[in-house]
Each structure stands twice: as structure tokens, then as C-alpha cells.
Amino acid sequence: MVHKSDSDELSALRAENARIIKPLLPPEPATPRAGRPWAEHRKIINGMFWVLCSGAPWRDLPERYGSWKTVYNRFNRWSKSGVINIIFNRLLSLLDANGFIDWSATALDGSNIRALKCAAGAQKNIPISTEIMGRVALAAVLAPKSIWQQTEVASR
């Protein structure tokens, strides 16, 4: 007997939700193509939800969702084409319209977002005079190497 795990319950796309997002999805091919048989969108979306809810790597996707590579490729294609954002925004607006989102309790943690050097706000390509560079280098050489050494010398 096969039992569904908690992540399966969370990741299952219900029929009413599938009806909401179906018009937002790319059309399924009318005629079969060469290669593997076409995997229906709902099965693939359930696989995407499983990976996103569980945090598992794509290769660990259970077989009941189809090939991990098919699920990954469709997720990647839909992400690049904007389909994922359209679905997210549609579902978010429906949840908000029905009062399921408490905006006062939302927060964004940016501590895991890496800032690039070019985004630091400093002006680029400004020549620095050799006089200034010389003073900075001299100050670095003459500066005490640690606070501990300063305290030891002062206490003698």
C-alpha cells in the first residue's frame, strides 16, 4: 500500500486550481511528436511543486511525476518565457482578492541575495592620483598590525 507523504499533499494541484491556471499555460500539442509521449501539464506542475516544496534536487523527483528531465526542462522553459510569473501573479491576485493574504505579515529577507561589485554604487573608472595612492600605502605600512600589540607596548 502506497502512502502519500506530507509534501505530496502540499504539492498536489487540485482540479479547481488546475482549471484556474490552464488558460495561462502553453497549448499542449494537438498531434504527437517524435520521442517520448507527451506528459500532461498537470502531472508536470505537480512534479514542479514537489521539487519546490521538498527542496530536493530535480534528479530525486519520484517517477510518478514523469521524467525529472522533462519536469526540469518544462520548468526552465516556462521560467524563461515568463509563464511561471504569469501563473504566480494570477494565483497571488486571486488569493489577495479572497482575503487569504495578510500583507502586514509579509517580509522580504535579502540576506541571501548576493550584491555584485558593480552594484555597490561607487563611481567607476575614476583615476586615482599617485600621491593619494602613496599616502594610503604609507598609512597601511605604518598602521599597527593589531590592537593587542598596541596594548602590550603601552603597558610596559
From TrEMBL:
Q: Could you tell me which InterPro entries the record lists for this protein? A: IS402-like_dom (IPR025161), Transposase_6_like (IPR052909)
Domain Insertion element IS402-like span(s) in chain numbering: 19-87
Pfam families with a match to the protein in the record:
DUF4096 (PF13340)
Q: Which residues does UniProt call coiled coil?
A: none
- Protein name, UniProt field: ISSfl1 ORF1
